[in-house]
Structures are given as structure tokens and as C-alpha cells.
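Budget justification note: compute hours in this period were largely spent on complex prediction jobs such as the one shown. Inputs:
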Amino acid sequence: MNVQVEPAKLKAKDFASDQEVRWCPGCGDYAILKAVQVALAEMGAEPDNTVFVSGIGCAARFPYYMATYGFHTIHGRAPAVATGVKLANPDLDVWVVSGDGDALSIGGNHLLHVLRRNVDVQFLLFNNEIYGLTKGQYSPTSKVGQKSPSTPQGSIDAPVDACTFALGCNARFVARGIDIQAKNLGHIFKRARDHKGASFVEIIQNCIVFNDNAFAHFTEKSAAEDTQIHVVHGERLIFGAEGNKGLRIKPGAFELEVVTIGEGGVTEQDILFHDETNRVLAGLLVSMKPPEMPVALGVIYCDPAPSYEAAVREQVEAAKSKGLGDLDVLLRSGNTWTVT
Amino acid sequence: MNLQADPSKNGISETASVSDTESIVVRFAGDSGDGVQLLGGQFSQATALDHNSLATFPDFPAEIRAPTGTTYGVSAFQIKFGSREVKTSGDTPDVLVALNPAALKVNYKDVRTGGLIVLDTGSFTARNLKKAGFDVDPREDDTLGEYKTLEIDISTLTLEATKPFEVTQKEALRAKNMWTLGLVYWMYDRTTEATEKFIALKFGVNSPVANANIAALRAGHVYGETAEVSGDVQRTHVAEVEFAPGEYRLVTGAEALSWGLAAGCQLAGLDMTFCSYPITPSSPILHILSRLKNFGITTFQAEDEIAAACSAIGASYAGNMGITASSGPGIALKTEAIGLAISTELPLIIVDTQRAGPSTGLPTKTEQSDLFLTVWGRNGDAPMPVVSARSPSDCFDTAIEAVRLATKYMTPVFLLSDGYIANAAEPWLIPSLSDYEAFPVTHRTEPEGFLPFSRDEKTLARPWVKPGTPGLMHRIGGIEKADGTGNISYDPNNHQKMTNLRTAKIDGIAKDIPLQSVELGNETGGDLAVVGWGSTYGPINRAVANVLEAGLSVSHIHLRHVWPLPSNLIELLSKFDKVLVAEMNNGQLLTFLRSQTRQDIEGHLKVTGQPLTIREVEDAIKARVRN
Ligand SMILES: Cc1ncc(C[n+]2csc(CCOP(=O)(O)OP(=O)(O)O)c2C)c(N)n1
Ligand code: SF4
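Corresponding output:
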């Protein structure tokens, strides 16, 4: 059978499976699901060439809702499974969906290695700063003091910042978005998919049941403009409701500071340009936290390097080009003797 | 009841009913830096080229570079060779070559009474004696009274032989193993030719190091000819074995297993993706396969064993043959992933090269104590086939069988080897791939009527669909799946049904494997059946052969298929008055078989980290059966 695929004609709903979506009403995951489906349709992705791999958690139910190939694996191990998929078939478009517990607690080791190897997958980390599926325990990204069933007096361990971790793992693509900002997410997904190698995307996701409003201080409409900076490669790092705030290197220190154009002699010329190929800048941007600093969003770092599975394939092909292996010859290599 | 065998040494008695002229057991022992394994490997090659039958047992120290002269840094290599088929590396050495006092200390008690001990006296310094824990020089009291000794200053003779060449003192002394090898070649009437070629290849033709080593080798050989060794040493020629015609080679278990996996994949028409994490004694498989990329084999050194298992599963999901390999602790880590492969019904092979003990145990020592882990060691009702190889060369066929079962039944398969099999070498009549029936795999491409969890009527296997196939998009996962559609299902009856289906699928494999045969003895029953699995094959087989010659009614039954068991096994066992399981663990197959039958079954069990000896199996038989 020869099915004529015309990807351009697919709509977002063509990427939705027939399974009923079972997240809590109001969960941020719905918006992300929609954004992914819209982005795939717009990009002309082919459902039969697309694979969603996930671990365990609320977020990890994602593959069931996609009309693509999907593999819901075990807690934390999705990056390893995805690596195997890419090793076997580098042509597949592989997406990994994970929660903050899945990716940074039980699966931290695998996330580290999928990023530093630079396996060509899109890694989406839905960060709700809580364990949703197991009913609300604190997670490795929870803020100190997080009250939860396992930390009734508030958590005491210091959290990890997902994007800082990713940069530390030598990720070549790091981006951050917010569940409700569909348009921005769509743009990030496209960039992530175009990027050859591991693309790490942190998505701020509201868990309405166990950690509602954890991010309200910068996601709320009223606060958003002054607490978010949407970075664009080659453009100045300017933000704010009035469009007059910007980031510059603090004189005499190696750190960023927020300044207001027109105040204290600051002009637009003083504001830094975003250079997404600059690791050091990326490191400074991802670690910014409100209220002192805005949260950096968008493609924060992108500096491609050869992808792992392509290099693996190259070695195999190089070996094959010198002559395909013949098992009967191999078994007879080295010292043999013949009995007549 | 104490099931534990008495592990005490039996160095003073001779292996029952094996005549010395037919076979000889030699053990080489020295410091880990003395090149004992290389010496042993070369001697094995020369022995094989002289058409003797042989089996080897390399016994490595756990430390990579233990301080020189210590007992825990002693490395040994034992070989049994003979003019009739050799099935074990030998119970008790006839000859021990000890390259330093520590090597003597660790090994001399194993030598048979009246056996020969060759000593490098050059290494018997006060310091080395002390390091080895000898208060008195063992040559001067009656420590070695039961043995013949041949004392040679091998160190000095090596230095002399290598003097003409521009090598450092250290490099010169390193050739000690070659001098020793030369002498042993002389003792067994072998030529130095093949080893000379090997040296030239290894160190570079005409390089000073190569020339020094060749000179040492020749000097050792000539020493035998000219010096007055003949009084103490009988120069022996072991006649050729009548091998079946064909081309032979030496093969280790790790080699045969790796090549068997490659062969299995070719017979299935699949590319292999091999994912592993280094661990002793499993790593050689990773090393061997990573050199076979021209066979379309991809190897992946994962970040840990969990990732190794998971990436192999990912590769199988994408349509390749995903394979992972490890040993004890690593297999434990893979457990959850194996459950995923069972639940999603994907083919996967997990090679377990077993090693001794719980936890880290004894990494370089051998044992068969993962049977429970492989048959039962998972959460939920999670059945899967387990096959086990009995000898180095048998790894080849067993690996092919593992690939066949995994792909035909869409299931993970455990492939059991152990540290002994992995490192030991034996002659192998080299097979041709055309000797084997191909079992080509077809991935499903037809969208019409597709259900991811529909089943083949005969095998109960579900269809294998590669992502990338138009029109067959579907989702799988470890949550219970609805029969047929594979959609998430919490329906109680469906879970019962799926559990039954998974069980029936694996049980059904019993119909697709050979009936259990009797290796030696009588198919129709008798006084005793000795049942084994894995690397105990050699000692059990020889022990049973010996007692059969002595007129006892005993048979040897050896399992390749540990689960599911061959369908006739329980009935076969019932034909014997007694059943004895001999294994290198604390009673795992024993307990397992007891769970499958009401028959009274006893065990001969040993966990010393050393292979079973022929002698102890014979004793265990004789304790139960009278003539
Ligand atoms: C081996 C294992 N340990 C624990 C669990 C239980 N478990 C399931 S999901 C989860 C945490 C989920 O949190 P997160 O990854 O943040 O995802 P969310 O549910 O918030 O989307 C845990 C602990 C499991 N499924 N498997
Ligand atoms: S528990 Fe939280 S994360 Fe999970 S589905 Fe409900 S709202 Fe979403």
C-alpha cells in the first residue's frame, strides 16, 4: 500500500489520538499538549515518523494523547529509551516528555548523558515544582520551604535549576517557555525540532491541584511584562511594560543587572544584545530569578554540534564501506587447524 | 539438612580413573605482571595446533595491579590437555609452574601427590618469601616433600638470553614468561614456531623487544634439551585426538557468545544494537562486538546498566535486535526495564555472565547463582524464557536460540553464561552459518485490521511494528494494556486475561524447544540422574562417564532451557530412583525443580568461586548409589 502523505495539510487535531485526555481540569499540561499539536501541524511533521517517548508522571502520559508513535516507559528512563530508538533509526523525529521529578530526580543521570552526548531528541521538561502523579510530594525543583505531604514543615533541600543543569551537562540547545504562552512555545518547539542534537526545553507548568500558582509571581498577566524577558538572538535584552528596561553587565562586576533606559544616564546603547551562541551569557540568563531579575524565556542558548547518533552511524558506515562482515570468514580468522 | 558440599581441598588424591598418559593438567602461576595469562594462551594455541583436546581455566586476581610478590596478586592459568576428549580444565594439576614464592604459596597444595613443581629460584629472595608469607624457605623444609621439584633460576637465564638485544632490564625480565613457555614446550614436545610468529606480530618484526622474547623462548626450549632436567622431568608426548574432520579453532565463551549473537541477528535478518555498561566478567562481549561494526552492529556504552537495558529496549522498539549484557549487580539494576519489555512484549536479550556472591561478591570468580534472579526476579507476574550455555563453544548455539525465541515470541530472553565459560577456551569445530535454519523476522506494515496487541494464533506473539511505518501509529507502555487495542486499561478482568496470555505465551515455548535428552547413561531410567545446567557440564559429564565405566546406573541430564522447562523433563526425572542436582550455588535449580515436581531431589552444591571438580561429583554420586 502506498499512502500519499501530504503533511502540509494536517491540522493540529490530526495529531490528537482517540484517547480521552485525563489530566485534572485546569492542568497546564492541556495547554502544552495543544501547543505541541499545533506546532507539529504547522511544521508539517509526519505522524508516522514522529515518536513520543516518556517516563512516568502526569506529564509522561503525554504520548497516549498523540496520534503519533508513542512509548510510555519507566520512571526517569525515557532519555535512555529514546537514545536506543535514535541509535536504531536516526531518521525518526523523537520527542521526550518528562516531569521535574522524572527528569531531575530518578532520571537525572540519563538526562545528563542524553544532553552531553547530544542525541538528536527534543527533551521537554514540564516543570511544576511538584510530584503530581504521586499526589503532591516536593520535587528537586521545589523551592526551599515547600510544604508537601512528605515535608509538612517545609522542604529543606536546595532546588536545582533545570536550565542551569542542562547547560552544565553541555546541552547545545536550551530554551524556556510557559504553558499558557502557546505562541512562544510553538516558536520554541520549531527551533528545538530544527536543531540537530539534543534540544532541552523547560516548560513552566502549573499543577492546579498540588502546587497551584507556584509561578504566579511571574506568569500572572499583571506581573508578566515586568518579570519576563523574551530573548531573541541578535536583539537587545529589553523588557518591561514600558519597553524601557534592559539587561547590562553591572559595571565592575561579572553579573547582569536590570537598568532602566533613560534613567541614570542609561541609553539603549548600554543594553546587551542577546547572543544565543554565548554559553556564558546563557548561564547568566537562565539563573535570573524574580523579583530582582526577570525570568528569561525563549531560545536562550543554541550552538549546534554534531549529533551523537549521526557520529555512531558514521563509524558503522565507515566500517561497512571497508567490506561487509562475513561471519564465516570471521569465525575462521586467527589460528585455525584442519583435521582430515 | 546441610546441602553444602565440603569445599576442602582434595589435592592428595588423583582424579579418579583418568590415566596420566591420556591427559595432563598444567597450572601456570605468577605475579599479575608476569604475563601468565599470555603464557597460558600461547600454550593453549600450541596445544590445539598439535591436535590435543583441551580445556582452560584462567583465574585472575581481583586487583588490576596488586603490589608485586603478594598472594592476592597471583594470576593463574590452568590447562588440561589430552589424547581423549577433555571436558574440564582438570581437578588437580600434575604440574605447577610457579614464577614466584606467592604463586607457589597459593597453588602448591592443589598439585597431586608426586606431581611436579617448577620454580623460578631467581624470585626466591628473602623479601619475596616474606611477602608470600613463608617464614622458612619452602625449598628448605618439607613443605614440598610430597612433590618433585625442578628449581631453575629462570630470571637469570632470561636475562642472559636477552643480553644481545637493546632492551631495558625490565623489558628483559618480562620475557621470563617466554623462557618458561619454551621450557614447557620442550616438556610436551611442542615447537616454538607459532609463538615466535605471534611475538613478532605483537612487538613488531625484528624489534629489539620481539627479538629478546624470541631468544628467551628458544633459550627455555634449548635448556630442556641440554640441561640435566631429564632426570626429574619425563618428556611427554600427548598423542593427537581423533577429532571429527573439519576446521577447528580455539574459542572462549565470550567470543562464541558474541559471534552467536551476531549469527542470530543475521539469521533473523536484523541489525543488532548492543548496549552495555562495563562489568567483570561481562565486558569482553562489549569489546568484541564493538569491533564488528562492519556487520551492521551498533554498540553503545551506556551510563549505567539501567540505561543499557532501556536503550536496548528502545532499539528493539525501533525494529532492531536490542541486546544488553551484564553480570550480577548490573543484572539487578536492569530488572525494572526487563519488566517493561515483558509488559510491552518487545524482543530483548539480556546476557548474564554470572559471577560469585551477592552484592559485589567475588567479581573474578565463577558461580551459577542468578537462576532465581532470571526466572523469578521481577515485580508482578513476569514470565520470560531463560536459556543457559554449557561450555565456551556452546555459547554460540545458545545465543542463536536466544535470538530465535526473542523475535519469534516477542519477549525478552535471558541468556546465561558465567565467568568460567566466558574466559575459558576450548577447541571448536567451526560451524558455517548455512548449517543453521534462518528465522527471518517480518515487521508488520499492513494497516488493515492492525491492533498492537493482537496475537499470532500459534505463538501468541503480538505484531512488531517499526515506528516510521505509515498508517500504523500506536502507543505502548508499561501500564496494563487492553487486550487487542493496547489502550490503557484498569479493567480487572482484562488484567487477569493479559496476565494469562503473557504466561501462556511463555509456557507455549516449551512446545517449540527440543525434548530433554539424556547426555550420558540411560533414557529409560536408573538409580540416579545427575541434573545440571551451565558450566557444570564438563565435570558432571566426566564424573558420570567414570561411574558408568565402574558399572553404576547413573545418567547425566543437562538443561539448556531453564525456563520454560522441556515438556518431558519432569516425567523423565520420575524414571530415576534418585535425582541429584549439581550446581555452583546454594540450591537454586534444586529448589526450582522441587517446586515443579513432588520428587525427592537432592543437591551437590558448591560456592567456592571455583568450578566443580570431577572428583567431588563422583563422590557425590557414589554417596548415593551403590554398585
Ligand atoms: C521506580 C519508580 N519509583 C517511583 C514511582 C512513583 N512515581 C511515579 S511518577 C513520580 C513523580 C512524578 O513527578 P514528576 O516527574 O514531577 O511528574 P508530574 O507527575 O508532576 O508530571 C513518582 C515518584 C514509579 N512510578 N517508579
Ligand atoms: S496532579 Fe497536577 S500535574 Fe498532575 S494532572 Fe493534576 S494538575 Fe496536572
